[in-house]
Each structure stands twice: as structure tokens, then as C-alpha cells.
Amino acid sequence: MVFNWFRRQFSQPQQASSPSQQSQEEPQEEAAEQAESSTEEVATEPEASRDSTITEENASDETSTEATSTPSWLQRSSGLEKLKATAIDDTPQQPQAAETETETETATPSSEETVTVDDDEAAWSVRVLANQGRNPEEIAQEEISWLKQLRQGLGKTRRNFFNQLKAVVGKGPLNEDAVMEIEALLLQADVGIEATDYIIQTLQEKMREEALPLDSAIAYLKQIVCEILERPFQQEGTTVTFAPEKDQLNIWLITGVNGSGKTTTIGKLAHLGQKSDYRCLIAAADTFRAAAVEQIQAWGDRANTEVVANPGKNTDPAAVVYDAITKAESNGTELLLVDTAGRLQNKKNLMEELGKIRKVIDKRAPNANIESLLVIDASLGQNGLKQAEAFTEVANLSGVVLTKLDGSSKGGVALAISQQLNLPIRFVGAGEGLEDLRPFSSYEFAEALLSE
Ligand SMILES: Nc1nc2c(ncn2[C@@H]2O[C@H](COP(=O)(O)OP(=O)(O)OP(=O)(O)O)[C@@H](O)[C@H]2O)c(=O)[nH]1
Ligand SMILES: [Mg+2]
């Protein structure tokens, strides 16, 4: 059975309720308890029997003598021993079940045979997955690797934030001065004024009720962060899961300013699509830059996906898209990814060209599921947001892909996007490789940004 990465089960956006209405002491999620209990089992295991890396095949042999609910690779992990010691009560509000369970959702990613939980970050990844109700049996190396990567990408911001926060709250429970210092930290992390104001106000309301020690302050901050990130998903007509429909044509138009990571994102999406068993096709509609066709062709080769292109001079990008839709219809393509030229939002003629591409798609494929994603380079901070309005107007945006979270980005821009643009973040990129892009999960992002 093929694992559909687009429909990967993760914690769903909470219903619109303010963190200030929610208790910190909510009962632990069942799966989190399971993870916790597996930690206890790990802790009681003799040291000598622990390997950090074993194959799934070996693992299944072991389960008969171990507790049945926890795979032996998880029980044996030395990294997991530390979970119990480091765990704070930061479990989110009851994560809900996945939106719609399909056959593919329950499958396990299976590109690698070996499951390794050999360090704190892998252990952290397992805990984050278990907290979302994931059965440890279903967790695979690929998901652990991705979460580690996300956490590493946000590592600098997280460490800065924690060290400074510790210094602030080391003096005692949070007070007004401490809140002001947290405000400065948030602004430095690119969270933006609007989201920072909201966070600070919500924190202050909470503090009027009770003084917060560090652990509770962090747990509460995570709730606020999740609430902000999830708000755009609660608009009418916005789905939580962002997956192409099987056996239908889905067209995703990828837009953004120069160098934001559009072409790279298309390559990664095509790869994710192929892995998730969709028939994919790429339209090379960046006809502006001489080397653009070659570049997307190279990504197509890497992702094992055909590219429709017209390498001639002064080719009309809308004509390429037209041809690509014709091809997609004739060969049963399910996911057509349209690469476009980078353009500044204030370049009128280029924006008009993009508007024309969108119109051709709408007209030529009225029955397709059409989505339009703005690729934003996270390392640009607030500057990356200025483009959005103009792109929304001409391309009718339905979401954002946030790239380069592994670089010098501070990560907080995700909050600014959600608060200021009210567009759902659909994917995050954290690296230049084929595997370095995954669907966005607000819970995982908040954990990666704010877990010590
Ligand atoms: N570190 C890192 N680099 C990335 C990521 N995504 C893209 N890049 C790099 O950013 C640069 C620009 O990426 P492209 O995909 O060519 O960007 P583009 O938006 O298609 O650029 P134009 O077509 O010129 O507008 C390349 O060097 C990519 O390798 C990412 O998530 N992390
Ligand atoms: Mg490009």
C-alpha cells in the first residue's frame, strides 16, 4: 500500500478557541500516554540489550517478548530514555483524528528499511508524532528524518529564544518586564508586529490569572503559536488537507518573486507526488530566463516526471500551459505542476502575464482542481510578505509554500504570514534536496520552534 504524503495524518487545526480559554492541565492524549509508557519500558531495559539501529525485520521478531503495543526498535532506543526526563507537560489540546481516513493514509512511508532512533532529535521526532496520535508501529524513518530536519532548520532561532527566555524567567515567574522582553525576542524572530501584539496580549491576559513558570509559559506560547498558524485554515472553503484528488486533473500554479524557490519546490512536489502514487506532469512556463527550461528539466529527471516545454525564444508561457493541459488530459495526469518565471509584484507587464496564465488554466481546464501557491523565501522575513497582495489579485492564491527554513531564516515569518496574509501555509521546504519539502503541520512547526 502506498503512503500518501499529502494526506499524512497529523494533528488538525483546533476549533477556533482562544488559548486563554484552555487549561494547561488537560488530560494527556492516549497516544502520548503510549509514548510515555514506552519510555518507561525503555528506561527499565538492561543497558546491554539496547542497539541504536536495527532493521524492521529484526524488530518484528523482538516484539513477542516485549510489550505488544510498542515496536522493539522504539523500546530499544537509547535516545528515548531521555524523553521521560525531558518531557514537560506541553501536550497540545486533544489532537483530533485525521479529516478523512483513506486507505493510503494508514500506510507507512517505506522508502528506508531501517528505523533509527539514536539521538535526542530522533527521540523528539517520535514524541511529536506520538503526541499527534500516531501509532509508533506506523512511524517510519522518513518522517523522523523530516522532523529532525525541520527542527535543525529552526534550531538557531529556537536556541536563541530559549536561552534568552531562560535568562528572562530565571528571575522568577513571568512579569510585565519579562513580557516586554519576550516581545523583543518575537520581533527579532520575524514574527511581525501584528502577530507579536496578539501573542503578547494573550500572554498578558493569562498572566493576570496566574504567574507562569518557564515550562508553562512555553507550553502556553506553543498553544498561541498553533492558534495563529491554524486560523487561515478555518476560513470557509479552506480544507485542512491539501492533497490532489485521485483520478482527476489537479493543477497547481507555482508563483513568487525571483529566486524564492519555485522551481526547486516543483521538483520536490513532483517527487512527493510520484511517491504518493499520483501521475505527475510539469509545465515549464518560465520562458523568461534562458536557463529556466534546462533547470526544470533537470528537476523533472530527478523526480522522474515528464516536463512539457517549448525551448524556443520568446515563447508565450500561457501557450506552454495550454499544451501541458492538453498533454495532461490525454495521458491521465493527476497532478500538473506549473513552473512560472520569478517576477516582482510591481512589474506590471509580468504580473499581467501571470494573470493571463491563470486565465488560460481556468478557461482551458474548468473541471480541474486548480490551486495557486505563492512561494515565499523564509529568510527574507517581513520583506517576503510584501508580494502577496499583488499575487493574490492576479493568480488567485490559495496558499503559501515557505522555503529555505534551513538557512538563515528565523522561522517566525510563518506566524506573520498566517496573521497578516491569512493564507494557509501548505508546504515547508528545508533544504535543496528532493526530499526536503513536506506538507505543513502547525503543531509540528510550533514544536520545532519552541521545544528545548
Ligand atoms: N537552503 C535552501 N535553499 C533552497 C531551498 N529552496 C530553494 N533553494 C535554493 O534557492 C535558489 C533558488 O531556487 P529556485 O528554485 O531556482 O528559485 P526560483 O523561484 O525558481 O527562481 P527564479 O525562477 O529565478 O525566479 C536555488 O539555489 C535553490 O537551491 C530551501 O528550502 N533551502
Ligand atoms: Mg525558477
Describe this structure in words.
There is one protein chain. The chain contains 17 helices and ten strands. The strands form two sheets. Strands 5-4-6-3-7-8-9-10 form an eight-stranded mixed β-sheet, with helices on both faces. It has a two-stranded antiparallel sheet with strand order 1-2. Helices cover 46% and strands 11% of the residues. Helix 9 crosses helix 10. It is of the alpha/beta class and 452 residues long. The structure holds guanosine-5'-triphosphate (GTP) and magnesium ion. The site of guanosine-5'-triphosphate has 21 residues, from helix 11.
List keywords for this structure.
single chain; binds magnesium ion; 452 residues; 17 helices; binds guanosine-5'-triphosphate; eight-stranded mixed β-sheet; alpha/beta
Please tally the helical runs, counting DSSP H or I stretches of 4 or more residues: 17
Q: Could you give the distance between the termini?
A: 36 Å
- Report strand %: 5-15%
Gross morphology: globular
Total beta strands: 10
User: Quick check: average pLDDT?
Assistant: 78
Low-confidence stretches: 12-18, 20-106
Share of helical residues: 40-55%
Helix/strand order, N-terminal first: HEHHHEHHHHHHEHEHEHEHEHEHEEH
Ligand identities: guanosine-5'-triphosphate, magnesium ion
The side-by-side strand order for the widest beta sheet comes to: 5-4-6-3-7-8-9-10
Rg estimate, integer Å: 23 Å
Largest sheet: 8 strands, mixed
User: How would you classify the helix and strand content by structural class?
Assistant: alpha/beta
